[in-house]
Amino acid sequence: MLVAYLPVFVAVRRRGQASPRRLAAIFGFFLYAAAVVAATVFPIVLRPGGEHWADHHWWLVIRWIPGDVPATDFVLNMLMFAPIGLVLPLWWPALNSLRRLAALALALSCGIEGTQFVLWWTLGNFRMVDVNDLISNTSGAVLGLLALRLLRVDHEAVQARM
After folding, report:
1. Of 25, 55, 103, 116, which one is least surrounded by beta carbons within 10 A?
2. Is 33:3 a contact under the CB 8 Å cutoff?
3. Which distant-in-sequence residues (6+ apart) come within 8 Å of 46 by Cβ?
C-alpha cells in the first residue's frame, strides 16, 4: 500500500497541494482501499496442479441470479463501498453525478470480481463471482453519494480546507 501511496504523495507535493489534511485524507483513503482488497481478494489459498478444476467448472463459480444472497452479505457489501460515494466526490467534483459515480463503482466492483475469477482460474483460490456483489457495491457507493448530498457538504469549502 505504501508503494502505491508514494507516487500520489509525490504528485500532490509537486502540485503544491500538500497540506497535512489533504495528505492525511489521501492516506486514509489508501488504507480504506487496502482494507477492501484484503477483504475481497485475500487470503489466497493455493491448490496445486489444477485440483480446483476437477470438481468445478468455471461457470459454477459465477452466481448469476440477482437477489440470491443473505441480507447481511448484501448490506455489508453496500457499507464497504459507501466511502467511495462519500469521499471521492469531495476530491473530484465530476463524480458528484449519480451516473458517473455508479459507473465508477460498477467498474471497481467488476475489477474485484474479475480478480477473484482470475485467481480461481490460475491459482485455485475458491472465491465466488457474484452478480449480487456488483449490485450491492454499486448501490453502496450511490447511497454514499446520496448521504453526502443530504449532509449538504460544500465541496468548495472542503477542497479549500484540504
Report:
1. 55
2. no
3. 123, 124, 125
* Tally of domains in the chain: 1
Q: How far apart are CA 116 and CA 6, in angstroms?
A: 26
Q: Is residue 84 part of a domain?
A: yes
Domain of residue 52, residue span = 41-161
Contacts of residue 43, defined as CB under 8 A and 6 or more positions apart, other chains included, come to: none
Least confident of 12-16, 72-76, 124-128, 129-133: 12-16
Cell of 139: 448501490
The pTM score is: 0.74
Note whether residue 74 is domain-resident.
yes
Q: How far apart are CA 75 and CA 96, in angstroms?
A: 23
Q: Tell me if 32 is assigned to some domain.
A: no
Amino acid sitting at position 21: R
Give the cell for residue 60. 459454477
3-state DSSP of 66-123: CCCCCHHHHHHHHHHHHHHHHHHHHHCHHHHCHHHHHHHHHHHHHHHHHHHHHHHHHH
27-61: pLDDT as tens digits: 788 788 888 888 887 776 666 655 555 566 666 66
Domain membership of residue 114 (yes or no) is yes
